[in-house]
Amino acid sequence: MLEGKAFKFGDNISTDHITPGRYFHLRGDIEKLAEHTLEDADETFASRVSEGDFVVAGNNFGLGSSREHAPRVIKQCGVATILAESFARIFYRNAINIGLPVIECDTSQIEDGDRIQVDLDEGKVRVPEKQIEVSFTPFPDFMKELLADGGLSAHLQKNKGFKIGGSSDGP
């Protein structure tokens, strides 16, 4: 069970909102770049977010360019999971590939600052103080394994190839 505070954003949060282009020169220093995470959507986000907190958004989170830096800096900030109504396809894939869970669910009842709980196995998001529970489709076992390993690259390194539940496509 994951628990933390919700940082609420609206629809169409782009990769430019997440990693502003004016900091492109920092792309080789993820820690430094992370200090500017979501700065163009909320200039105080990076200074207020804590390990285990959540980004919560509306529709089309992560639209725009296919920079892998966008989910990387969010993960670097300590965000446990991103919850949104929908994600841009490339952002979704990049997030899973780096080991950052992204969940599509109804976020309309979650407000900025809410303390929320996310159960990745049950497929439930709860806001206990408001007695709200939202369901989502849990990740299939192979995705849970990739996420547990820290993403695709870490999984490949750990298993010397792609190995899920006893099968292998590696050497």
Describe this entry's structure for a reader.
The relative contact order is 0.16. Helices cover 27% and strands 20% of the residues. The protein has 2 domains: 2-138, Alpha-Beta Barrel (Aconitase, domain 4), CATH 3.20.19; 140-171, no CATH class. It is of the alpha/beta class and 171 residues long. The mean pLDDT is 93. Strand 5 (115-119) and strand 6 form a beta hairpin. The protein has 7 helices and 9 strands, in the order βαααβαβαββββααββ.
Topology readout:
Blueprint: E1 2-8, H1 15-18, H2 30-34, H3 45-48, E2 54-57, H4 69-76, E3 81-84, H5 89-97, E4 102-104, E5 115-119, E6 124-127, E7 132-135, H6 141-149, H7 152-159, E8 163-164, E9 167-168
Parallel strand pairs: 1-2, 2-3, 3-4
Antiparallel strand pairs: 1-5, 5-6, 6-7, 8-9
Helix pairs in contact: 6-7
Mean pLDDT level: 93
CATH architecture of the largest domain: Alpha-Beta Barrel
Computed Rg: 16 Å
Secondary-structure element series: EHHHEHEHEEEEHHEE
Task: List segments where confidence is low: pLDDT < 50 over at least 5 consecutive residues.
Answer: none
